[in-house]
Design a protein that fits this description.
- By secondary structure, the chain is an alpha/beta fold.
- It has a single domain, classed as Ribonuclease Z/Hydroxyacylglutathione hydrolase-like (Metallo-beta-lactamase, Chain A, 4-Layer Sandwich), CATH 3.60.15.10.
- It is built from six helices and eleven strands.
- β4, α2 and β5 form a beta-alpha-beta unit.
- This is Metallo-beta-lactamase domain-containing protein.
């Protein structure tokens, strides 16, 4: 998704492709793309940044894991870390980058725009699909994920945008409770038979391969 203001915008968690970057430029004519936001170090969040910068050469890439364009040597992008207070300004409205210990990978973050009462949660929240738990394979890491859900619930957002969902699914705060339930159920599963039973009950969900990957790890 993109956050828009009258003059500026910033794409959130895009799997960047030439088609997407062209669509953003056509859909938001005349607007300055200020920031390209990288929430954590899973490749699909940042490997396409050079593609976006071809359309928007003035955009700043905010990312702390790979300083000085360590990735993509042939098309270097110099990334910058977020300021210590985590605040970015889009046409004088604040967008906050908030660090968390773990959700589906380590050292992650989400975005909060108070002026819209929205949380862009990325991979913290999953819609009607199975979660990627292959890296959250200890009780401690899953506890940290639940702590992140609590952290977002306290903000009381009216809109919650998950990183993975069906296209028809509404972006709403109901996702907080549904993800709590999924995480807590995962913590109760003890063997492959229980895991298979839980998956069968939710066969309508997308990403069944994710579930098997998680089952082997958990």
């Amino acid at each position: 998704m993109d956050l828009h203001q009258p003059c500026s915008l910033t794409p959130q968690y895009p799997p960047v492709t030439p088609k997407l970057s062209s669509w953003i430029k056509e859909t938001t004519p005349g607007k300055e793309l200020k920031y390209i936001d990288t929430p954590h170090a899973q490749g699909y969040h940042y490997l396409g940044n050079p593609v976006m910068r071809k359309q928007f050469p003035g955009a700043i890439s905010w990312e702390g894991w790979f300083p000085n364009g360590l990735i993509l040597v042939e098309s270097r992008v110099i990334h910058q870390s977020l300021p210590a207070h985590g605040e970015l300004s889009i046409d004088n409205s604040s967008l906050f980058g908030i660090d968390v210990v773990h959700f589906d990978t380590n050292a992650s973050s989400f975005r909060h725009a108070p002026y819209l009462n929205i949380v862009i949660a990325g991979d913290i929240f999953y819609g009607n699909c199975f979660q990627f738990l292959a890296e959250a394979k200890t009780a401690e890491k899953r506890k940290n994920w639940l702590g992140t859900l609590d952290q977002i619930a306290v903000l009381g957002p009216a809109i919650v945008v998950p990183g993975h969902k069906r296209a028809s699914q509404v972006d709403g705060p109901y996702l907080i409770e549904s993800n709590f339930a999924s995480e807590e159920e995962t913590n109760r599963l003890r063997d492959l038979e229980q895991i298979e039973e839980a998956m069968t009950k939710r066969s309508h969900r997308g990403g069944i391969g994710m579930s098997w990957t998680a089952a082997k790890a958990v």
